[in-house]
Amino acid sequence: MTKYVLKRIALAFMTAVIILSLTFILIKLLPFEQPVGLDPQKFAYYQDQVRLGFVQSFNKAQTNKGKLLWSYSSSGQQYYYYQVPVFQQFFNWLRNILTRWDWGTSVKIQANVAATVIIGERIKVSMLLNIFSVVFSVPIGIALGIWAALKKNTITDHIISTLIMVFISVPSFVLITFLMLWLCYGAEVLPTQWPSASAPFDIRLKAFILPVFCLSFGSICGYCRFTRAELCEVMESDYLLLARTKGLTKRQAILRHALRNAMVPIVPSIIAEFLSIMGGSMILENLYGIPGIGSLFVDSLNAKDYNILFVDMAIFTTLGLLAGVLLDISYGFIDPRIRMGAKK
Q: Given this model, what pLDDT does residue 272 score?
């Protein structure tokens, strides 16, 4: 098991390096995006690009360095900036990350502010939303699934299954739009948009209700369907029938054997569900004005702020690969019979 874990971590690391490297090269092949602001601010940005090794500065115009990006004159000193070759930028980028953990600065969203600083300010809100959503959706979804399985082919099962099929078809951004019209603008019981950090505590607390519910909605339906299907399959297995013939009551057989075995594929899926909620919160964060990394991804894409976009993509890529590793490893810890990589 230890060998398998180390192998999966190494493969995930290599995959992350390949994905981020290709992403960096493809982004750098796009036209150079000019910074915003006054000339002194632009000058500071270009000087930072020179420090990072992405741009070269000269005292006079060059004819063999490609297209001139920008020129600036200050106190009699003339500056001409040209972009260095993409692969040279790539190696400089690796050096900056490995030696200084420097991912570059923002061009437009917060000009000349480090990308990692901007991400660090936004990621807290997204993480809180997703943690609350998982905590809210997991027990409710599993409980509904267990209830439907125990009442299989009854009116209760039919009602739960029908409602789940209807509700799972509603996207989270459609649901939050409807609830905003009803609860925020109509009844006026919830904030119409995400409040600022200086807002009263009760307002900031109420602001979590709408996005957490909408993010949890699809997860509850998914957990309910998955739990019902797994539990129904386990309850029809031979070993559960054997447990009943040995004298266990139906309640004892379900609690000791059926639920435990049905949870084997369900518990690891919680890890993957956390990641899927992170990805699904992009549109929702934009609609409700939540200052998270999901809305930041869309904003940086629209503004062509490639440094911010790249760091955001790096976070989602790392989370995806980490979730995959934890998902595979968790199977072995939950059920000792499936120790991946163990000797036969």
A: 65
Cβ burial of 270 (10 Å; 0-12, 13-18, 19+) is middle
Distance CA 193, CA 177 (A): 11
Contact 43, 74 (CB under 8 A): yes
Q: What is the 8-class DSSP label of residue 81?
A: E
Give the pLDDT of residue 258.
77
How far apart are alpha carbons 116 and 106 in whole angstroms?
Answer: 9
Inter-residue contact 292 to 125 (CB < 8 Å): yes
Count of Cβ atoms closer than 10 Å to residue 278 Cβ:
23
d(CA 165, CA 170): 9
Residues in Cβ contact with 31 at an 8 Å cutoff, skipping those fewer than 6 apart: none
Query: Is residue 223 exposed (0-12), middle (13-18) or buried (19+ Cβ within 10 Å)?
Result: buried
Q: Name the 3-class secondary structure at 79.
A: strand
Contact indicator for 269, 255 with CB cutoff of 8 Å: no
- pLDDT of 5 strictly over 80: no
CB 217 within 8 A of CB 253: no
Task: Report residue 204: phi and psi, to 5°.
Answer: -65, -30
- 174-221 pLDDT, tens digit per residue, is 888 888 889 888 888 888 888 888 888 888 888 888 888 888 888 888
Distance CA 117, CA 265 (A): 38
% of the chain at pLDDT higher than 70: 92
- If phi > 0 it is left, if psi is from -120 to 50 it is alpha, else beta; for residue 175 that is alpha
pTM: 0.76
* Lookup result for tokens 């549109």: 283
